[in-house]
Each structure stands twice: as C-alpha cells, then as structure tokens.
Write a structure and sequence with these properties.
Length: 198
C-alpha cells in the first residue's frame, strides 16, 4: 500500500520532472529544491497541476546559509523557502530556491501567483536584502525606512550600525553611531548575618 507521502512524492516528480534539483522526504515532509530560473514556472505547476493543487502559500522566508553547518556550507548564501498547502489533497510541501548571486540576491516574485506572498517577500527583502523581481511594492516592512543594512544577515553586527534616540534640544528623533561604553559588571551580593538560621 502506498502512503500519502509517497503519493505526493510521485506526483511532484511526475509534474516537475527535470525542474527538481533535489527532493528529500524527512520527518513526514517533502522538500524540493528548484533553480532560480525555474522557480516561477515550478511554483505555477505546483499550484495548477490537478494531481497537486497547492492552492495556498502559507509561508515564505529568507535564509542566510553563510555559517550553516559550522561554516562548511559550500553553496549559494541566500535562499527563499516557501511552504505550500493543498486544501484539496490535504498535504504540504516545502520549496527552496537559492539566489544565484550572493552579492545581489534576486529571485522571481510570487505575488502574481499567490497574493499572500506580498508581505512575506517584503519581510525577506527587509531582513535579508533578497530582491524579488516583479514585486510591485518592494520596500521595508518591519524596520525603519532610514535603517541601514539587513538585520538577519549573519554578518550584521548584533549592536547594529546606528542607534535612534530623541534629542530634546533639537526636538526630534536623531540617528547616531552606536556607542557602547565598556563597563565592568560585578554582581552585588547581599549577605544577611543570620540568613537561613532560626
């Protein structure tokens, strides 16, 4: 008897064929990797093929692989990972696509395929600097418009580049370089003479 996950795997292999660079089944989930050049067409096949019918994009996020596996990762640095749901068949799939250029990560936008991709792609752009070709409103969504850099990149400093504060003299919010004054932290120990004694 064929399990549901085996049925899904066979349907995906049949529908996408050579567009699949890698397919793994682990922990009851199917994950496929497609090339950036095949990304948009593969996603449309996953949505429209009668044997698959992934009607919903339930998540999309960026990933920075620069320090993955304790630095032994040898592939492209940035990826976009999407999670799709088929209400018709009651199954899910994870799709990963790597941006071919680490300096300027660009993948196709899914906004015209699933409108829910809009804010997810804006978040991936904001946090990772991944550009989505064809997105009609790609701008920051969670950080300030004056924010410098992309805070979820592994090389982004924990303290950031600038800090924001209100200046009472200028009566406005100002940005200035981060200043972290070194300090020695010594725990304060309070001992009572008869602590724990009755």
């Amino acid at each position: 008897m064929t399990t549901k996950i085996e049925t899904l795997e066979a349907a995906v292999r049949n529908a996408l064929g050579g567009q699949i660079q890698d397919l793994k089944v682990a922990l009851g989930e199917v994950t496929i990797v497609v090339a950036a050049s095949d990304y948009l067409s593969a996603m449309r096949v996953l949505r429209d093929h009668a044997d698959l019918r992934f009607e919903e994009l339930i998540d999309l996020c960026g990933v920075d692989y620069s320090t993955y596996g304790d630095g032994v990762w040898d592939g492209p640095r940035f990826a976009v990972v999407s999670h799709l749901l088929s209400v018709t068949h009651n199954w899910r799939i994870r799709v990963r696509v790597f941006a071919p250029d680490d300096e300027m990560p660009v993948v196709a936008s899914l906004v015209d395929t699933w409108s829910t991709a809009n804010w997810y792609e804006r978040e991936a752009f904001d946090f990772f600097g991944i550009l989505f070709e064809g997105h009609n409103d790609l701008r920051r969504i969670l950080t300030d418009y004056g924010f410098i850099g992309h805070p979820f990149r592994k090389d982004f400093p924990v303290s950031g580049y600038v800090e924001m504060r209100y200046d009472a003299e200028q009566r406005r919010v100002i940005y200035q370089p981060v200043t972290i004054e070194p300090r020695e932290i010594i725990p304060r120990v309070i001992r009572e003479e008869k602590y724990g004694m009755k």
